[in-house]
C-alpha cells in the first residue's frame, strides 16, 4: 500500500482554481507515468518541460488540491497536473508581458491551431 503524503498544509481548494477551462498552459516540469496512465510504462515521460496544453477539466484531490486535466495536443496525452506544475500562457500579468517586450507577441501564437508562419 502506498502512503499518500500531503506536501503542504495549505488547503488550495479554499480559493478558486488558478486556471480555467480551455486555458492554454505550459508545463513547468517533466511528468512521468506513476502507474496511473494506462498503456504506458511506469517512469515513461508523458509531458516534457515546455509542452503546451489546454485545461479540459478541473477536479480535486485529498480535499486539498486542484488537479487540472490538461490535454497536450502535440503528444496526444491527457494528464492530471497540479497548479505548481503549470504556468498560464493566456493570462500573464502585465509586468511579465512588459518584461518580455516584443517576445510577448510570439506567446499569442504558441500552441494555437494555426502555426505562426501561416498567420502572417
What share of residues are in beta strands? 25-35%
Total helical elements: 3
CATH topology assignment of the domain at 12-91 = SH3 type barrels
H-E string: EEEEEEEHHH
Unreliable segments of 5+ consecutive residues:
114-120
- Describe the global form: globular
Write out key terms for the chains shown.
120 residues; alpha+beta; SH3 type barrels; five-stranded antiparallel sheet; two-stranded antiparallel ribbon; 7 strands
What do you see in this structure?
Strand 4 and strand 5 form a beta hairpin. This protein has three helices and seven strands, in the order E-E-E-E-E-E-E-H-H-H. The chain has a domain at 12-91: SH3 type barrels. The strands form two sheets. A five-stranded antiparallel sheet has the order 6-5-4-1-7, with no helix packed on it. A two-stranded antiparallel sheet has the order 2-3. With 120 residues, the chain is an alpha+beta fold. The chain has helices at 94-100, 103-107, 116-119, and strands spanning 24-27, 31-32, 45-47, 52-61, 65-72, 77-81, 86-88.
Task: Summarize the entry for a quick read.
The chain is α+β, with helices and mostly antiparallel strands and 120 residues long.
Amino acid at each position: 500500500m502506498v502512503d499518500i503524503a500531503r506536501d503542504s498544509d495549505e488547503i488550495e481548494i479554499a480559493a478558486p482554481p488558478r486556471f480555467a477551462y480551455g486555458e492554454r498552459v505550459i508545463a513547468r516540469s517533466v511528468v512521468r507515468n506513476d502507474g496511473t496512465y494506462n498503456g504506458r510504462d511506469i517512469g515513461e515521460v508523458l509531458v516534457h518541460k515546455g509542452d503546451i496544453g489546454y485545461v479540459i477539466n478541473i477536479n480535486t484531490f485529498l480535499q486539498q488540491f486542484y488537479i487540472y486535466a490538461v490535454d497536450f495536443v502535440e503528444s496526444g496525452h491527457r494528464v492530471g497536473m497540479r497548479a505548481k506544475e503549470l504556468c498560464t500562457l493566456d493570462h500573464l500579468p502585465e509586468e511579465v508581458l512588459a518584461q518580455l517586450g516584443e517576445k510577448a507577441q510570439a506567446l499569442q501564437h504558441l500552441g494555437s491551431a494555426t502555426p505562426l508562419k501561416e498567420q502572417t
